[in-house]
# Entry
Amino acid sequence: VQLVESGGGLVQPGGSLRLSCAASGFTFSRYHMSWYRQAPGKERELVASITIAGGSTDYVDSVKGRFTISRDNAKNTVYLQMNILKPEETAVYYCRAQAAWGPAYVYWGQGTQVTVSP
# Structure
């Protein structure tokens, strides 16, 4: 099982990034997907989530209207489009997969660094 994030990097405040998470080794279409982030010295927090068919999404209040989560089950990939980024959103962003039939079946990616700085 692998979840491989990509697309992180350095961006100026107000800029945009698109993160990708490529999944392999499990039936991607049967897993709810989400993005988390963890800033230095802080707890990991849920940023956005999407259900197995993409019919429902949810976001933490601080990113609503700026971030969009989506998935392509044919490509086994989940995305996070991030717009109008803020310095306080500097963090390692992680992809997470949770089986639709059981919350105990969870996989994590290794994370990708996002740095928002002038």
Summary: The mean pLDDT is 96. The chain is about 0% helix and 55% strand.
